[in-house]
Write a structure and sequence with these properties.
- This protein is α/β, with parallel strands linked by helices and 287 residues long.
- α10 crosses α11.
- Helices cover 47% and strands 14% of the residues.
- It is globular, with a radius of gyration of 19 Å.
Length: 287
């Protein structure tokens, strides 16, 4: 497989770029300009340096990974030779649609175009970007270095060649493919959101503390983290946008609780803000 271009050096883009390089893929991290992309590359290098310092990574492996990764601005010239473009921008159609349309215009006719959205209907993105029959959803879970699955949303009418290409990428990334029907929230976001919103309602009603509600799911059901901590890690603003989108489509069970709206209004959006249902330090650890 040829080079993988990842558009967006945010949480998803950085995690995917790191893992893709570790899997041996030539990986291009694209930002709004070169400085934006280079800042993302620096963050990934720091992660490898930390692994090296802890004895989890050899100097040779670190250097090999670094050689697989490069930064570039998102432009026509930097897509030359790319085999795949994975859009990893925030969950905002007004950001994703023009970027995907530009990638289709600038890339080769056989460029595989994937959206990393976890909740937006891919058919809508495809329709509005002129990519009907070509665009797929490729929802990777963060941290991509540890999560072994990809949720692939395939709109009706997508050409088989693109589906096969996405599956080939998943194989290179050592991910199990779960193909789901293209709908708002797909499957994973809907399941996780339903649990998270119910935990928020219980917290809001004073049933138990955040720590105790999460403990019921981790110690009682064996979940790796509880629904409130997961919400903090995902981002409370993203959780709210998904809930609002589902509610707008007539799905009342996803009505966001007042507590979630208040947290977002106060900019206490979770890990990235340092405060959500929990307090977080700059290294992503609960305080």
């Amino acid at each position: 497989m040829g080079p993988l271009a990842i558009l967006g050096p945010g949480i998803l883009g950085l995690s995917t770029a790191q893992w893709a390089a570790e899997c041996g893929l030539e990986t291009w991290l694209l930002g709004r300009n070169l400085e934006h992309a280079e800042a993302g590359i620096k963050e990934i290098h720091q992660r490898w340096d930390q692994s090296l310092a802890k004895g989890r990574l050899s100097p040779e492996a670190r250097d090999h990974y670094i050689g697989k990764l490069r930064a570039a601005p998102f432009s026509a010239s930097t897509l030359d030779g790319a085999s795949v473009l994975l859009e990893a921008l925030p969950e905002d159609p007004d950001l994703k649609i023009p970027a995907l349309a530009s990638a289709a215009l600038w890339g080769s006719p056989d460029l595989l175009l994937l959206s990393g959205t976890s909740s937006l209907p891919v058919s809508d993105l495809a329709q509005r970007s002129g990519l009907v029959g070509r665009l797929l959803g490729f929802h990777l879970f963060v941290p991509v270095t540890r999560m072994a699955v990809v949720e692939m949303a395939v709109p009706v009418g997508t050409m088989p060649i693109w589906v096969d290409g996405a599956k080939a990428l998943a194989s290179v990334l050592h991910k199990r493919v779960v193909q789901v029907r293209d709908q708002p929230g797909f499957a994973a976001a809907r399941m996780a959101l339903a649990q998270g919103l119910e935990a928020m309602r219980l917290l809001e009603a004073g049933v138990a503390t955040a720590e105790d509600l999460d403990a019921l799911m981790t110690l009682g059901y064996g979940h790796p983290i509880g629904p409130l901590e997961l919400s903090d890690r995902v981002g409370l603003d993203l959780r709210l946008r998904i809930a609002q989108g589902l509610t707008a489509s007539g799905e009342d069970p996803f009505q966001p609780p007042s507590l979630l709206r208040t947290k977002v209004d106060e900019k206490a959006t979770g890990l990235k803000a340092g405060q959500g249902f929990y307090a977080w330090d700059s290294h992503g650890r609960r305080i």
